[in-house]
Here is the input.
Amino acid sequence: MNYKVRVATPADASDIQAIYAPMVLDTVISFELTPPTVDEMAARIAATLPTYPYLVAEMDGKVVGYAYASQHRAREAYRWSVDVTVYVDPSVHRKGVGRALYQQLLPVLEKQGFHAAYAGIALPNAGSIGIHEALGLTQIGTYPEVGFKHGQWHSVGYWRKTLCAVEPPIEIIPFSEIKGE
Here is the structure.
């Protein structure tokens, strides 16, 4: 498969929204109920990039997957923890796109000084569990029946990967300061 991974820009919002909207409408992979518009997606990308990486995988000029990091929790002591997310166009599932995105994203987060990455996976989802575990994330627990979508309750499992194990932790380096490296 011939694709490249690069930093996303708000100009990628249309392609990203096209991948994400069916996940919102047709699955419980996302707990959003209404897909964000292209403008909302562009704003999300722009809001993410100063602090966290937002990456896309591109094939023949078209975005076929994306991965990003986001704040784990709002309280200050959580600042060394980060949530990670990956979405891949179904036409290229099981072709290494998600793995390639995470193989770029996770080392950047470690370099930034994040101590641990967390991924929430709506259950069941064998494909998502498989990629996360293959990349070294381990399941740490499940929130049973935490979300209600498509007429039923859904549980979410949580996976974790240690990144930067320095103690005391270093201050987080914003993505905008290291993205050119």
